[in-house]
Specification:
The protein has 227 residues and is an alpha+beta fold. The chain contains 7 helices and 5 strands.
């Protein structure tokens, strides 16, 4: 780590370990400027206060533009005392990324807004756009498009896997029953073993969907509160 680095640690979110990253800017003297929780004020604290004993990581920008370290720190200092925290469009990552690149962006928001069966993603377009424009009107359209694209990506990856796992559970249960009817206990045991494996996979996928649903619920409540 060095002066001007965008650093982050994993923090728990509503009792779900490792759900989100808490970001800040390394001042280079053992202190960090970040949107502190729970005060929701941009403060300069010790690195120990920032990390809370968790490992610290550095956000890399191998192909993107970044300000010089001195400029990054200066930009961070310019917003000390700010009290405009918003999970959706002005969180700790938005702040740190703005200091580093000049663009207020949060990968977490874009990556963890899932689509669930009862949610029409396109109905979120206008309220999300309005919220983002309050923070950074210049890149609002780009962020909205990325968010909607990521919504589809997350759903397309997880939901079909979960549906397949549930189908496999039913299939192997039928195989086990049929094997027992034919007095093939060896085949029945193997079928039940595979059923159990698919049940574990389905449970894992279901937990991922639950985590995404919690994040979605929090984002929507936050958006409603600030609309």
């Amino acid at each position: 780590m060095a002066m001007g680095d965008q650093i982050y640690v994993w923090r728990d979110f509503q009792n779900l370990g490792g759900v989100y990253q808490h970001h800040g800017i390394d001042v280079g003297d053992g202190t960090v400027i970040h949107y502190r929780k729970p005060s929701e004020v941009i403060e300069r604290t010790s690195i120990e206060t920032f990390s809370r004993g968790s490992p610290i990581y550095v956000r890399e920008y191998p192909e993107g533009f970044c300000f010089l370290p001195e400029v990054v720190v200066k930009r961070a200092f310019s917003r000390l005392g700010e009290r405009k925290y918003n999970l959706l469009f002005n969180n700790c990552e938005h702040f740190a990324t703005w200091c580093k690149t000049g663009i207020s962006d949060s990968r977490q928001v874009r990556e963890f807004i899932p689509i669930i069966t009862k949610l029409d993603a396109y109905k979120l377009l206008d309220p999300i756009k309005q919220a983002l424009q309050l923070s950074d009107p210049y890149n609002a359209n780009d962020l909205v498009n990325k968010a909607l694209a990521d919504i589809k990506t997350v759903w397309d990856q997880i939901q079909p896997q979960y549906r397949q796992a549930k189908n496999e559970i039913e299939t192997w249960e039928k195989v086990a029953i049929l094997a027992l009817q034919k007095n093939r206990e060896d085949l029945a045991k193997e079928a039940l073993k595979r059923k159990k494996d698919w049940e574990k996979k389905a449970q894992n996928l279901e937990k991922q969907l639950e985590h995404l649903a919690v994040m979605t619920d929090s984002l929507l409540k936050n958006l409603k509160t600030n609309s």
